[in-house]
Amino acid sequence: SLSAVAEGVETMEDLALLDALECPYAQGFVIAKPMSGDDLLGWVWQLGAVAIAAVAVAWPRFSKPTRPDRP
């Protein structure tokens, strides 16, 4: 199977379109601005569970396994 990451996602409307197109992977300013590696570690640490929970609520299929070998 083929996986792709949508790049340059800048608005919630972009995310909604990707959701409608069943594209589960995105990167862009709507998610986070460019940052250094050190800043990334802090961002992940700070948002960790909150960000994961927000994605799981907003896009239920993200909380489901995407690998066919998992139930």
Description:
The protein is mainly α and 71 residues long. 44% of the residues lie in helices and 6% in strands. The protein has helices at residues 12-20, 37-58; strands at residues 6-7, 26-27. The protein has a two-stranded parallel sheet. Helix 1 (12-20) links the parallel strand 1 (6-7) and strand 2. The longest helix is centred in the C-terminal third of the chain and has 22 residues, at 37-58.
Secondary structure layout:
Layout: E1 6-7, H1 12-20, E2 26-27, H2 37-58
Unreliable parts: none
What structural category characterises the helix and strand content?
A: mainly alpha
Give the end-to-end Cα distance, rounded to a whole number of Å.
17 Å
Strands of the widest sheet, in order across it, are 1-2
The helix/strand series, from N terminus to C terminus, equals: EHEH
The count of DSSP E runs of length 2 or more, i.e. the number of strands, is: 2
- The average pLDDT score comes to 76
Sheet with the most strands, sense and barrel status? 2 strands, parallel
Radius of gyration: 13 Å
Shape: globular
Helical element count? 2
Portion in helices: 40-55%
Strand coverage percent: 5-15%
Brief overview:
This protein has 71 residues and is mainly alpha-helical. The chain has two helices and two strands, in the order βαβα.
